[in-house]
Input
Amino acid sequence: MVQINFLFSLLAATGITAVNAIPVDTKPGLEGIPVGAKDGLYIGHIKDDGKTNWEFLGAHNQSIPVTARDDRPLAARAAIPYATCAGFGVNADQVNVAQGYLANLCGNGYYFSGRSIAQVYGGGVAYACNYASSQTCHSGDVWDFFGDINHKCGFAHGGQAGAGWESVPAWKAAYGRTSTGTGFC
Output
């Protein structure tokens, strides 16, 4: 929630309208996946008491093939996404593996109804946020979003990748990357 409040303050200070803001939600953001968490897939929920529950769903599924970029026209994707940098770096090689696993999971369509799904690899986290009742992610979109984040926030194999996210207001969703121990969504 701190990231969202900071973003709205920054937008107001710069005169940018809230039309492009991250989807507004009255629920608090998720606490980070704990440092040292097992590599694999997690789903995050906010419990009634406001605390985060990260459920480990299992190790990475390497049998799901990476699909090509989404070939639907941009208008059909009904979004004008934009990237926002979090202001810190993560291990580029670890988060790149996590991003690949998230894209593989999304494949030609992966439905989820939790607040977030997240792939962890080492200290890197690639995630999808759900600000609606459910979402379906697709690998082509995920790679497009990570490409936008790379372009705006930076990425250097063997070095750092800028943590950040791509908000998709029309879908009430966001996709991003961070490190374990850091909250998101």
Summary: Residues 2-67+77-179 form one domain.
